[in-house]
Write a structure and sequence with these properties.
The chain is built from 8 helices and 18 strands. Bound molecules: zinc ion. The site of zinc ion has 4 residues, from loops.
C-alpha cells in the first residue's frame, strides 16, 4: 500500500468517525425535538400546522400599535386598553395593559418569551402592577420582570408562583410545532425557565383595584383552576376573563380543573352579564361578545348529560360547539354522570 494511500485511508476513517459522530449527535437532537413535540400534546389539543388559521380576522377591527418588540403584536381595544398578543407560539397568549390616571395594570404577563417590560415602556410611563388571572406558565411568564405582583389570595397561587416552571416542563412548548417563528436570541430551549416569583400583594373576591378613575373589580371564578379570577372593568364594560373562556379549545382536562366549580362560576358571571359587553380572554382573540357565556353553560350541561359532537383519543374527548370547543377527560364525564344518576336515584 502506498504511503499516500495509507494516510488517505486514515484520514478517511477519521473523517468517517467525525461524520458518524455528528450524525449521531444530530439524530439524538432531532429525536429529542421530536419526542418533545410529540409528547407535549395530543393532536386533539395541538393540531398540526395550527398557525395556518392565522391571522385571526377579529384583529383587523383594531388599531395595530407599532413597537420595537417583534415577538409581540399590540392592538388598542379601547382608550388606554391594549391587548398584547403572542401569535408565534401555540398558546397564542394575550396579556392586557389597562392604564388609569395613577397606575397601570398588566393583566397577566404571557409566556415570558418576549421582553414584555421593554414593550410596556413603549406604551406607558405610569407605575405598573401585575395582576395574574391565575397561575399557569403562560400567564406568569414575565412576572419576574416587574416589582409589584398581585395574585388571588390562595395557597395554590402563592405556592405555584413561588415554585416557577423548570426547563423540562417548558421545553416542549417552544420546540418543534409549538412555535412557527424564530425565538428571540436570548431564549435557549435547553435552558429556558420561568423563575420563582414572590407575590407582593393579594386580592380577594369583590375587591376593587382602582387605577385612578378606573375601578377594576376582582371576581373569583374557579373552574379552569381553583385560583382563577376575572377582572371587571366597569367603566369600559369589559371582563378580563383569563382562561375561564377563550375562543378555542377550553382545557377542561387538566388536574386543577373542577367542573362543578366551572358551572357555579358560570352561573355567577351570567347573573352579572348586564355589566359587561365583551370578554377579553387570555388566548387567541381579545374580544368576544359576553353572551357566549350562555352557550358555554349549555355546552357543559350537554357534555355532562352525554350529548354533543366529539372526537375521542385515549382518555380525551374534544367536543365541538362552533365558537369554542371543550377538551375533557372521559373519566371526568363518567364521574359526573355517576354523581348525577346517584342523585336522581336518591331523589326518585
Ligand atoms: Zn390556564
Amino acid at each position: 500500500m502506498a504511503k499516500g494511500n495509507f494516510f488517505s485511508e486514515r484520514r478517511f476513517r477519521f473523517m468517517a468517525i467525525i461524520i458518524l459522530g455528528l450524525v449521531l449527535i444530530s439524530a439524538g437532537c432531532s429525536r429529542d425535538r421530536e419526542t418533545y413535540s410529540k409528547t407535549a400534546r395530543s393532536k386533539l389539543i395541538q393540531p398540526p400546522k395550527w398557525w395556518e388559521q392565522l391571522p385571526r380576522s377579529i384583529y383587523l377591527r383594531f388599531d395595530k400599535v407599532q413597537t420595537n418588540q417583534s415577538w409581540y403584536e399590540v392592538y388598542q381595544l379601547r382608550e388606554s386598553t391594549y391587548a398584547i398578543y403572542e401569535p408565534y407560539q401555540f398558546e397564542e397568549a394575550i396579556s392586557y395593559l389597562l392604564i388609569g390616571t395613577d397606575k397601570a395594570l398588566m393583566v397577566d404577563t404571557g409566556t415570558g418569551i418576549g421582553d414584555l417590560k421593554k414593550l410596556i415602556s413603549e406604551l406607558t410611563q405610569v407605575p405598573i402592577a401585575v395582576l395574574n388571572t391565575h397561575i399557569h406558565w403562560d400567564q406568569v411568564g414575565n412576572n419576574s420582570q416587574f416589582d409589584e405582583i398581585l395574585v388571588y389570595n390562595s395557597i395554590e397561587s402563592i405556592t405555584k408562583l413561588y415554585t416557577g416552571y423548570n426547563n423540562s416542563f417548558l421545553k416542549g412548548h417552544i420546540l418543534g410545532d409549538s412555535i412557527w417563528k424564530s425565538l428571540p436570541e436570548n431564549i435557549d430551549p435547553d435552558t429556558w425557565k420561568i423563575p420563582p416569583v414572590k407575590s407582593t400583594d393579594l386580592v380577594e373576591d369583590g375587591m376593587i383595584y382602582d387605577l385612578g378613575n378606573r375601578p377594576i373589580e376582582v371576581i373569583h371564578s374557579p373552574g379552569h383552576s381553583p385560583d382563577s379570577i376575572c377582572l371587571l372593568d366597569k367603566k369600559n364594560r369589559l371582563l378580563f376573563c383569563g382562561d375561564f373562556f377563550y375562543s378555542g379549545p377550553l382545557y377542561a382536562f387538566e388536574e386543577d380543573v373542577n367542573i362543578q366549580d366551572y358551572i357555579t362560576s358560570l352561573e355567577n358571571l351570567i347573573k352579572r352579564i348586564d355589566e359587561f359587553d365583551f370578554l377579553c380572554p387570555s388566548h387567541n382573540v381579545p374580544w368576544v361578545k359576553s353572551d357566549i357565556l350562555l352557550k358555554v353553560q349549555d355546552a357543559f350541561e350537554d357534555i355532562m348529560r352525554g350529548k354533543g359532537r366529539y372526537e375521542e383519543s385515549e382518555n380525551l374527548r374534544r367536543y365541538y360547539f362552533g365558537d369554542f370547543d371543550v377538551i375533557i377527560r372521559v373519566d371526568m364525564i363518567k364521574e359526573k354522570s355517576e354523581d348525577r344518576s346517584k342523585r336522581d336515584t336518591e331523589i326518585g
